[in-house]
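Work Package 3 (structural annotation) set out to generate three-dimensional models for the target panel prioritized at the project kickoff. During this period the team completed the workflow that converts sequence records into discrete structure tokens, so that structures can be stored uniformly alongside our sequence database. As a representative example, we reproduce one entry of 268 residues exactly as it appears in the project archive.
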Amino acid sequence: MMKSAKKMFYPAALAAGVLLSSSAMAFEDFQITESSVPGAAVNTFTADRIVGGYQEIVTFGAGTFDVSILWTAGQFFDDGTGIASQVGGFGPNTYDMYGLFQASGTFVSNGAGGSLFSFNSGGTLDLLIDADKDNAYTAPLTGDLAWTATGNTADDILLATGEVLSGAGVLDPTLSTCGPGVNCGSFGTNTDFNLTDAGKDFFTAPVPFYNVSFQSGQFDQFNVSGTQSIVGSLDAVFNVPEPSALALFGLGLLGMGGVARRKTKAKA
């Protein structure tokens, strides 16, 4: 069950990633060496973002929120073009890459039936590889931020850790893309990014690697109360502007993203 949940967001995330990557905003290049993953074939390439989808469990209080995200990588991109790689695939030589993200923050009404979100500093990010694709997670319980391992995660490879530095987001149900309840807002978080030894074998350039990462997400409609499960797309890039600016930039692409996601669902 949860194994499929780790992959179910890939088509929508891929569509959104293509559109975001085709924008005028450029991100820093980095080099991936996939042969460092046990069982992967030799393959080295340059990319500027990692596209994926996520499931988010968020609990809202009186003007506060606590959030926990399970993100699954779907594909690497460079200048708007998808790169042939072994991540998220099926068959021999493939592997899964995923992230566990926890954070907290505050929110206020934006006067349009939505909300503005601000992330506190101090949350956490772990980026891992499941080389043999045999793990699984279940969602946190109410008020709990920890995803529970229900498969074999003991052999997963920790690539990097990070701490949340800042972040911003907006939910706006008046957006034209939000009619069917998809692409109703965006968010961005800024974290530091500390590679492990295994991570240095995977992210092989530049050296030293970037010390700041950014996660740019889009999400579907949800109620800002109680505990909610939210899905959406999320890109990872490195050494970028402040997340508040990129969260607003993401809103400008919601129209295109909404069209792409509706087309994807129509084909399913």
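The first strand starts at residue 30 and ends at 33.
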